[in-house]
Amino acid sequence: MSPPRPKLVDQDTGEVKVDRSGRTVFTVGLSAADPMGRVELLNISVSGDQEVTLGQIVSPVGLVAFPWEQVRNGEKRWGIAYRADRIVPAAVPSPATADAA
Description:
50% strand; Regulatory protein; 9 strands; five-stranded mixed β-sheet; CATH 2.40.50.140
């Protein structure tokens, strides 16, 4: 994962996005791998600063994905946006637990 950074409403002005409660919305970059080894890079929006660090294995809680579409300057753009309630460190089994399994 990459460290949380404030999400900008406007790159030119530097205006930071806030949620309905007035909390800053952060973007956290995550990578996710499927069983075939394909890796996706995802930017997850989350309200409030998250207590996570670069390279840490984490889990998004309350993750929701929704499609978006817009036309800008006559060009159609689309994608999938991701939002989570929070990002928490993943539970990593201890060596003793892993050996017992």
